[in-house]
Amino acid sequence: MKNTDAILVFLASLVFLLHSSFPLHFAEAQGNETPYTYIEATGRGPSRRGQLNPELQACGNGRMQSPIDIRLQDVKLAPALGDLPLQYQPAAASIKSLGRVIQVSWKGNAGNIIVNGDRYDLKQCHWHIPTEHAIEGIRYDLELHIVHQNSDGAFAVVAILFKLGRPDQFLSRLLPFIKSVTKEEKDLGIINPRDIGFWSRNYFRYNGSLTAPPCSEGVVWTIFQEVIMVSEEQVNALRDAVDNEFKMNARPIQALNGRSVFLYQAI
């Protein structure tokens, strides 16, 4: 059984690598000058992104796009994936508004994760309202993306989903900075990424894309299965801090197109 799981994961990863032959550019990390919004009435909403610029064609015709709706009946158990190795450490960080998201970036060596035997260094994190990924058709109140990059420029993103409830400790620490954030970078001092404070041992894994333009494919997604809590004040602060056209900054669900979604469950 374990050999079968390992073969399934390997084959999915191989197809993913062969499909993703062009360089990746992470829009949230590097900026994107093409104007787009999440509002269809503007003519620059999600359904038209692939037509805004030739470099954004993947947003319209990509076959391995994100986010997706995770349906448990279709998920394949994959014990061979194992626990997600996290090797984080404190490092200098900053915060700024990109207009479309609020982003915390680590300037120094903040550590890494290991995915499919490859090291991906921690770069930044940002939030989307509501969640971009859905589980059983349900989109929750907030999604945190923790972005990592390997030596070849490929990305691995860890996603945490939140529902309204008690305050999230990491956001509680950042809340004063979020409420005063501007488009100018502001130092946060030393931030330990472990302060994010929640690491479920159970997670979904699939191969997808950036959820924002240029929608480049070749992103390894890890989505923690458990949905944790965030306060309404914290969600509102993140919403208030972005531009008007990005108050709801979650991309619509994309077709799975035959991709496999794996689930690792710790014993």
Task: Provide keyphrases for this structure.
single chain, 267 residues, alpha+beta, Carbonic Anhydrase II, 13-stranded mixed β-sheet, two-stranded parallel sheet, 6 helices, 19% helix, globular, Alpha_CA_prokaryot-like, signal, CA_dom, Carbonic_anhydrase_a-class
Top-tier CATH class: Alpha Beta
Number of helices: 6
- Envelope shape: globular
Listing every helix as H and every strand as E from the N terminus to the C terminus, the arrangement reads HHHHEEEEEEEEEEHEEEEHE
Number of strands: 15
User: How much is the average pLDDT?
Assistant: 89
Biggest sheet statistics: 13 strands, mixed
Q: Roughly how many Å is the radius of gyration?
A: 18 Å
Task: Kindly estimate the percentage of residues that lie in beta strands according to DSSP.
Answer: 25-35%
In CATH, what is the homologous superfamily?
Answer: Alpha carbonic anhydrase
| SS-based class | alpha+beta
Distance from first to last alpha carbon: 15 Å
